[in-house]
## 1
Amino acid sequence: SEAINFYRKRGDEDQVKIHEKGLTNEQETRKKIRTTIKEIPQYENYVSFPEKGIINHEKIQQLFRPEPKAGHKILCCDWFVEQDRIWLIAKRSGKQAKMVQLPLKASEVQAFINDKLTDYFRDTLLTHPEELDAMKALIAPLAEWSEPEELLIFSPTKSLHALPLHALDLNGEPLLVRNPIAYAYSLSIMQQCIVRRRTMHQSASVALFGDPTDDRPEAAAFVYELARQVSSQGKGTIAITGHVVTKEVFLNNIKGHRIVHFQGHAKYEPHEPMNSYLALADGKITASEIFNQRELSAELLTLIACESAASEIASGDEPSGLIPAFLSSGMCAVLATLWPVNRFSATEFIRQFYATLTNAETVMNKAQALRAAALAIRSQGEFAAPYHWAPFVLHGAWQ
């Protein structure tokens, strides 16, 4: 409704009509999600976590128990919207929380997304990345609140989920240059992922899936390359490609591995988010079907697929989509993409990411490995625009 008022004040009746229709669709979506909650018990458990609310001491203490090692500081950053006002709260374990009202309005953020990222994201992120500066106030307080190299855990809200917050400018450089970053729909969900990882006992093997729809042979070839690259992770590493990647094969083979990699197509359904899906050889597997799975206990699931990180946020910041579905079903962390990726830069990113993550000498966690790979891509002139290095986001346990 704030966005409708915003466009009405601007005299943009076309956008008013679009948002009035969108508001109706949102109401219908929320109704469908509530129906889904009743039909899928696992989803009901997932969204019944306490609402995001304000970061509190107890939640932070539980999240980082045992305490982070010396030199490994962590700052939790939580945005929330009250009417049209955006607030940022930051909390470090054992320290007083800091809070500030940001100068940007929620309706202004939504207008930016509609104008610059919905249909014209390539133009913004590839040709005119300086336009992201309009959103840098969202992270500006972190210049004083956080320290360089400190891990930042971001818990955005509402439309902020659509923004590459890690790519916004802080003191002349993208924030990711300064800090490793992990995302969480809420600290409660993050806590579940961390606890799950601490108690995990599975083999060190890797399962890789590529080109299930048989229309991207380069993806299949790359999966076999990755299999050779990560084979040192343990016996039992498998690579499955093409028409063999049916729903049954996929579900049977993603269990019991440390890392699961999927490279193919995904579709996000904004008005029916539980019908968002991964495209497989014999059809699709939807978010609602994934919510019904058990023991998908990989330490990391990588989804290199168009729109894989998209999620619908209903009232109370309750997410529904592929990432929360996989996290709910047992995955400790999901690395996904915010927008359809360039196949060349994405291939190079994944190659760099796994090389760093599986290198015993580097001893980097997942958030650090993602950052290292993204910055390595950014350093290459042809991939310097955020369109190439900024789509990748890590949700869940970063260790």
Note: Residues 42-55, 310-319 have pLDDT under 50 and may be disordered.
## 2
Amino acid sequence: MARRDEDKPSVARTRTTVLENAHKVSVPKRGVTKRRAASTSSRAKTKITSSRQVQLTSSRTLPKRKLLPRSLMAKTKPARIHKHKLALLIACHNEEMVLETTIKSAVASGQKIEDIFVVDDNSSDKTREIAVRVLGVLNVLTVPRSGKAGAVYQAIKVFGFEERYQWVHISDGDSIFGEDYFRNYRRGLTGKEYVVAVGFIQSLRGNWIANYRSLSYTYSQHVMRRFQSWFNMISVLPGPITSFRTDIIQYLDFRTGVIAEDFDVTLQIYRMGLGKVRYIPDAICYTQDPQNLRDFCKQTFRWQRGFWQGVTRHRIGTKLQSIDISIGYQVFQMVLWLFEFGFLVPYTMFETGKWIILPILMVLDFTVVSILTIFSAIVAKRYWVLAALPYYYFLRYVELGIFLWAFVEIVILRRYHSTLQKGWVTEGRRYAIDKAALREAHG
């Protein structure tokens, strides 16, 4: 395109030069033979061609702005392409139980149905059939088994989100969007410095594990995530509630082969300095949690292994970026807690003989946990999370043990460093959503 723009003014100037010098070309008199006329014409053409070549050659050394007249510059301005605000991409595999509910909740919360897309990771059930019936065949893509990250990457390219939309929201097949989720989300997509946005993740009403997760989510996001947002150090972009500004997608690698792709993409954004992360707490999305302890442990292992993979892969702690401080603080908390209860308290009791120290510390800690639980229940208006108090420490210790186990596997034993995640980690663990949970999600 640049070459053509340079040629146009050069040709125009050449034509002007030729016309100005036209009177210098001798016209053959009558009686001149046809052969002489042809020779004269040939020399004139050679002169014009030579002149044009000189003009073209010299024009390349001149600044473009001096060569292009205003009229031509106006014509060469790129046409403005209108982009829609936000697309929703739902990645799923065998989600026939929940997919239609997810799509309907998105529409009810303010997302236009023509801006909703589904990528089906080669499901063996009726997932694709349901998606096509609700959205139409043009908004549904089925890919060979690739895992979530691979399926999302292919969908971004096939649907052309980078050319058609300003933002793309990635979500899971079990996401139930709260009332006004997308209306609130769009209002939060402001400021040129923000390249990623995250909403508020919450557990669907369910069993004892959902109660525990709801307690953890409420406290961590109302307190910790707000703090992280103020200092631009949000440490993870949760899969179901994250949107990317489409002009940064070209810099991101969704096919790294890691276990937790959302955490790895988070670290990529910070390491490359692409921009800030916007937190939109009014955009609440509900998601399903494991239904038994076995699945809870599997999911936690995946998260913690992915965490340590990201820490080692991106060398967290070796730089003074905000993400290093954020993750370093989280690890320090865990290490400090282990040091206190695993070494300092037993050592003090053994040296002083005051065995009452441990019960006193446990009562104090339980008091703090109870206050946080009551606070979370009031803020979230989910008073049933108080039921998680009796078994809070049990699940907390399970998570802590998995955290340490994953550290040994990834950092010390160097396992899972070449893992290519192709399985769908939620496969076989979906359940039908009851009416009570839907009423709570939709207000």
Note: Residues 1-78 have pLDDT under 50 and may be disordered.
## 3
Amino acid sequence: MLPAQAKHDVRTSWYYLAPQQKDGPAKSFQIAATLSLLRFHSFSHPSVVQLLRLPGLPMPLPVPTVSRKIVHIRRVEIECWHRDDGMLDIEARMTDLKDKDYPLPPSLGVRAKGEPLHDMRVRVTVDLDMTIQDAVASSDAVPYPGGCDTIAPVYQQLIGLSLLKGFRRAVTERFGGVRGCSHITELLGALPTAAFQTLASLQRDNGVRDWDDRVAKQPVQLDKCHALEVSSETVRQFYPRWYVRKMVGS
């Protein structure tokens, strides 16, 4: 169990425990927003439960009340790059990991614990209108070599699509079901919002704030989610120019 005198360093998100005796070694625990620490302790170790309840540690989900163990970990990571030619590269990666050795069909052996069952990547190059100019995909770890890893070239059909207009529907039409890899196709669904975040960063780098009076068009994020419905309090407070009072009974 962790002692009550655990100290939180807000600069590093480390929790420091005072030495148990004079000049004794201090212990420290880094709490990261990953599953690794929690997987090791299976959420049931009392030290982890106490760590999760320490004041100052963000905990968006309630601490589980039933002991459990991790079975599967999926990680998705997206990076957005601004190229020297003015275009953007958006790179996405999905990995699937098992918490124990995972048997495959007999001729394929066993995927060892910690080795990815799936490791899929995709990169799209887009112009500043968010139209895809180039696309590549790769399957670096798959359960069925010689099958899963042959589909990547079809994703060149992404070229010409807009990330901001009907992208997910177009992806389903082209790559849904047996026409594509379910994991790569699923990964593509996260690209539009990542692209938007990239555009927002570039606009701010150029001194443009989407709440400024000089912005002539309604910011694209408005009316795209419940918080930014144009009749919401959020829009009234932060984007008053675009606020629309909701009619009673509508």
Note: Strands lie at 7-9, 14-17, 27-30, 72-82, 88-98, 102-103, 110-111, 118-126, 132-141.
## 4
Amino acid sequence: MKNVFLVLATGLILGVVLPESNLPTKINAHISISLSGTDPDNSAMLDIQATDKGLLIPRMTTAQRNAISNPANSLLIYNTSTECFEAYNATTSTWVQIACIGCQLPGGFSASSATNVQPTSFTANWTASGGATGYYLDVATCSGFTGCYVSGYQNLNVGNVTSYAVTGLVCNTTYYYRVRAYNSCGTSANSNTITTETLFCTTACGSQVFMIANMDVGVMVNDAAEQNNDSQVEKYCYNNVASNCGTYGGLYQWAEAIQAPYSENSSGYTGIW
């Protein structure tokens, strides 16, 4: 047991010797811990003053840390297994390493724009992190990365690379990705999030490429009218119901389909488009 001097906001100085079991569970005041009895700073709930001693926060192993029930956001501990100071991030339900003794976490880095974007794939890219020996990659269909991970791309260990081909995706879909760097000391926080969108699906026969989804572009006109307004794209919809174009696709006269003048419908206009 040790002498503890508590200086309350009222100026009262308490010098007591108490076992831990007898310490009060609540003290509704600003508190200063010092040998001089100095008042606490008005901005601090707890003001510890010393010139010959330091502060020891709770120290525990990883297993003991993981046994903490419902840790509060920003809860701070020292992990004796990793020799790192850690804080709890309640948003991501993860322990974030702040600093490590005798071991350095990977340095700063960032995710960068996707390249080689295709209908069902793209390449995720990021800058190198100093001291990293590998990276974890997340890919999701929502920016919050909660309940929307792409199968196989949650905390995927991609090794010590700065790009990775993400495959097996759905065409014309928005995706989000982020990365974390790791080494023997631990894992960094999440990088920034990159947004990318896969291309429309197509199919090919030799050198010709065809759409494999219904075309639905333009302004609907009734089927009794001609698609003769060359200043806009016009279409017919089944039974003159606009929503049917979303279901079955639009119908186009030849000149409209190849974006030629309306007069070309009767001129035998040909070409590759």
Note: The longest strand covers residues 174-183.
